[in-house]
Amino acid sequence: MDTRFLESFIAIVERGSIADAARHLGLTPAAVAQRIKALEDEIRQPLLVRAGRSVTPTAAGLGIIEKSRLLIRGVEDLKALATHNEFAGELKLGAISTALTGILPFMLRKFLFDYPKIDLHVTPGQSTKLYHEVVEGQLDGAIIVEPPFAIPKACGWKRILSEPMVVLVSEDCTEMDPIKILKKNMFLRYDRNQWGGRIADAYLRETRIFPTRQLELDSLEAIALMVSQKVGVSLVPDWLKPWPEGLRIRKIPLPDTLLQRHIGVLWLHASSHANLLRQMVPLLQPQQL
């Protein structure tokens, strides 16, 4: 079976039309349609249903789409292994939101220049979700919050950044004692389902601070905006810029300066791009950004 036929099939399913798939592949619509006919003849099942300009997969098409993606990924991995030190193929990288805005934009130009044959795909998400996608082999690696447990032997890990936890208050707050601030004000809680949120939660429990009024959110940017609007106060990591524009807030450090959220790169040793991810680490560290 010619893998180019599968690539065309995947492109059509992902884009919803033969014309869009042809533009993506750099082919004519007629050439793509011929590939699909050859694939259907080989499998002996119709794979696509055409309705006007749109195309959707049949039951048989849906049945093979994921296996087709895995097969194409495997072929790309073989090509990457065959080139030895010349990195090529698709690199699937996950990244938490603050890494998407505070880390990746400042290293991508050099990365893409150094590795022109790498087709980089970035998947946004929360650390817990991205961690499991790396472990399960869906991603080659991810920039995430350091897990609160030991990294499995099947994976590599390199810490690239440590962010101190700070108390966020509106700029007109006159109180300077972070403990008093956390005890007396409406508390905007960093989501405890996230590993960074668990750091804040553990600190509150250890210092016996139990907010009676609170709102729990999973977006650090939203928390900062709400603090700026005097909705409440919060305990969050002092993440890398950029922060939302126009904020009217102050950051008050905690007495415990060792309370930090650690950010790092997780990768799967079995990934064909494990060596590339190890080489990426210096580019991701703050002094390089």
Describe what this molecule looks like in 3D.
There is one protein chain. Strand 7, helix 9 and strand 8 form a beta-alpha-beta unit. The two termini are 45 Å apart. The protein has helices at 3-15, 18-25, 29-43, 59-82, 97-102, 108-114, 127-135, 178-184, 195-206, 220-228, 274-284, and strands at residues 48-51, 54-57, 89-95, 118-124, 141-145, 155-170, 187-190, 214-217, 233-237, 249-253, 260-268. It is of the alpha/beta class and 289 residues long. The relative contact order is 0.14. It has 3 domains: 3-67, Orthogonal Bundle (Arc Repressor Mutant, subunit A), CATH 1.10.10.10; 89-159 and 263-288, 3-Layer(aba) Sandwich (D-Maltodextrin-Binding Protein, domain 2); 162-261, D-Maltodextrin-Binding Protein, domain 2, CATH 3.40.190. The strands form 2 sheets. Strands 3, 4, 5, 6, 7, 8, 9, 10 and 11 form a 9-stranded mixed sheet that branches.
Give the structure's gist in a few sentences.
The chain is an alpha/beta fold and 289 residues long. It contains 11 helices and 11 strands. One of its GO terms (molecular function) is DNA binding.
Secondary structure layout:
Blueprint: H1 3-15, H2 18-25, H3 29-43, E1 48-51, E2 54-57, H4 59-82, E3 89-95, H5 97-102, H6 108-114, E4 118-124, H7 127-135, E5 141-145, E6 155-170, H8 178-184, E7 187-190, H9 195-206, E8 214-217, H10 220-228, E9 233-237, E10 249-253, E11 260-268, H11 274-284
Parallel strand pairs: 3-4, 3-5, 7-8, 7-9
Antiparallel strand pairs: 1-2, 5-11, 6-9, 6-10, 6-11
